[in-house]
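Researcher: I'd like a candidate sequence for this fold, 228 residues long. If you have to choose between options at a position, lean toward the conservative one.
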């Protein structure tokens, strides 16, 4: 459940919003909704998505302003934003992209194409969720077959350890706090003590080093864990 890609859909028009949510969920994504810009910013703070599908024209706070605020904050700057707009002029596209949008889709659009663009964004930020093979040094993780090898030897990982490793391998070097790992690996709706993270990281380390290889998981005192 925790590995299902999360898409935030932001649109003030109910019919358009629900159509997008329906199609994103049919494509296998977990979704949350926001009906305006303020709601979108609150949603990102509470439950950070992997991709944001954001309408430009909204009352109170426009999609452009939401995008600008997200991109100037280090903790949300890397979240891909796909801007939806009826504005088709090149100058509008340029404005949207210069504000920080990662993609710009003009209305009316093909839902199939939009889903493909969401998947393309996910390939950049969470490759394991779209079936890609991840590699770090001599460790290879195949997210489609759920197979992990190190130096050519198969590793037997439990489902939680597999999700932990894929999270680490998607962003080598990034320091993950225990709370961030709980959200990503266990999910926000499951109550798990942060000490459980330490237990599963210990199990992951044991499997990764059982054939004598160096431990690739680094403990960052007071912060969490990182790969490499």
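Model: Candidate sequence:
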């Amino acid at each position: 459940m925790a590995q299902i890609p999360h898409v935030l859909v932001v649109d003030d028009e109910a019919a358009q919003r629900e159509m997008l949510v329906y199609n994103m969920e049919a494509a296998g994504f977990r979704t949350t909704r926001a009906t305006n810009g303020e709601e979108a910013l609150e949603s990102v703070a509470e439950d950070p998505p992997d991709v944001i599908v954001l309408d430009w024209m909204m009352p109170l706070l426009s999609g452009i302003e939401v995008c600008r605020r997200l991109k100037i904050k280090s903790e949300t700057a890397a979240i891909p934003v796909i801007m939806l707009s009826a504005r088709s002029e090149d100058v509008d596209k340029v404005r949207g992209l210069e504000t920080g949008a990662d993609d710009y889709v003009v209305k009316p659009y093909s839902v199939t194409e939009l889903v493909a663009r969401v998947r393309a964004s996910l390939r950049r930020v969470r490759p394991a969720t779209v079936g890609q093979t991840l590699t770090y040094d001599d460790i290879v993780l195949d997210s489609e077959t759920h197979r992990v090898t190190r130096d050519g030897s198969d590793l037997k990982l439990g489902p939680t350890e597999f999700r932990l490793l894929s999270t680490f391998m998607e962003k080598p070097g990034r320091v993950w706090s225990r709370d961030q790992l709980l959200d990503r690996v266990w999910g926000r709706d499951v109550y798990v003590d942060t000490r459980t993270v330490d237990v599963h990281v210990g199990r992951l380390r044991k499997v990764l080093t059982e054939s004598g290889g160096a431990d690739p998981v680094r403990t960052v005192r007071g912060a969490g864990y990182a790969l490499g």
